[in-house]
Amino acid sequence: MKIALLGYGKMGKMIEQIALSRGHEIVLKVDANDKEYDIALADVAIDFSIPTSAFNNITNCFKNNVPVISGTTGWLDQYKEAVDICSANNGAFIYASNFSLGVNVFFQLNEYLAKLMKNLSQYNVSMEEIHHTQKLDAPSGTAITLAEGIINNTSLSGWKLDKADANEVPIVAKRIVNVPGTHTVSYQSEVDSIDITHTAHNREGFALGAVIAAEWIIGKHGVFSMKDVLNIG
Ligand SMILES: NC(=O)C1=CN([C@@H]2O[C@H](COP(=O)(O)OP(=O)(O)OC[C@H]3O[C@@H](n4cnc5c(N)ncnc54)[C@H](O)[C@@H]3O)[C@@H](O)[C@H]2O)C=CC1
Ligand SMILES: O=C(O)C1=N[C@H](C(=O)O)C[C@H](O)C1
């Protein structure tokens, strides 16, 4: 399949490697200064760019009938608008805050644990995410998805960075050189703690998941998630 890479940074380069190893062709590499390009050359686009460019990159694909996979985080205030434009153009779209198989299993585990803890008022939930120092957004998209998984399965009503109210999930975001992505959800009581952690050792898992999603979406129309692609949960 002919792939357009929208964003040719750390993830774009890793996706290129994985895509070539699976027999695909990269027909476009679009980065910050590339304003004029013909997205219609591609069978599918994979967007790992920056928060301020994702919406335009993605909706340009819908308008040109190119299915699009996006892993860019930090732009989700415009997600609903993107979905509406996708539907209006009969397009195909998958956004995931995290494309790795391990994190998608971890998302399910997090929801299951939240259900178990729902009525145990002696425990307080909190979250920590650690990423490399170049990351533009905080908290991470993955942390937001985890917080939503807790909120949807408990009586908590929101999340906040650092100091949260009693009815919110507090998230601490740490930035440490070269960390690909570590997420921990903790439940603490006076007598014990329950912690679940996902640790990415490198970026390969994210990239492989994105390429698998791109392979899966060809020929489909609609808005999907990694749950559809991986058939879990
Ligand atoms: N969903 C997932 O599984 C994952 C998501 N991410 C997210 O993906 C995004 C990219 O991550 P990295 O590759 O690590 O960042 P990066 O900073 O290495 O690469 C981003 C690239 O986008 C380029 N760019 C800037 N404006 C652009 C535009 N208008 N069109 C196309 N490209 C443009 C930049 O020049 C840069 O090369 C971030 O939002 C990050 O949070 C990262 C890893 C996994
Ligand atoms: O910026 C990153 O690097 C990552 N971003 C994603 C996020 O915000 O959750 C996914 C992964 O953790 C790496």
Protein model, in words:
By secondary structure, this protein is α/β, with parallel strands linked by helices. The protein has two domains: 2-99 and 204-230, 3-Layer(aba) Sandwich (Rossmann fold); 101-199, 2-Layer Sandwich (Dihydrodipicolinate Reductase, domain 2). Helices cover 35% and strands 25% of the residues. The protein is built from seven helices and eleven strands. The protein has helices at 10-21, 51-63, 79-88, 101-117, 141-151, 204-217, 226-230, and strands at 2-6, 25-30, 44-47, 68-70, 92-95, 124-131, 158-161, 168-175, 182-188, 193-199, 222-224. The strands form two sheets. It has a six-stranded parallel β-sheet, sandwiched between helices. β9 (182-188) and β10 form a beta hairpin. α1 (10-21) packs across α6 (204-217) and α4 (101-117) packs parallel to α5. The longest helix has 17 residues, at 101-117. The two termini are 28 Å apart. The model has no long low-confidence stretch (mean pLDDT 97). The chain binds 1,4-dihydronicotinamide adenine dinucleotide (NAI) and the ligand O=C(O)C1=N[C@H](C(=O)O)C[C@H](O)C1. 1,4-dihydronicotinamide adenine dinucleotide (NAI) binds at residues 6-12, 30-32, 48-50, 53, 57, 71-74, 96-99, 134, 206.
Hetero groups: 1,4-dihydronicotinamide adenine dinucleotide, the ligand O=C(O)C1=N[C@H](C(=O)O)C[C@H](O)C1
As a whole number of angstroms, the C-alpha radius of gyration is 18 Å
CATH H-tier superfamily of the largest domain: NAD(P)-binding Rossmann-like Domain
Globular, elongated, flat, extended or rod-shaped: what is the shape?
elongated
Percent range of helical residues: 25-40%
Sheet with the most strands? Answer: 6 strands, parallel
The appropriate CATH architecture of the largest domain is 3-Layer(aba) Sandwich
Average predicted confidence as pLDDT:
97
H and E string: EHEEHEHEHEHEEEEHEH
CATH topology of the largest domain: Rossmann fold
How many DSSP E strands? 11
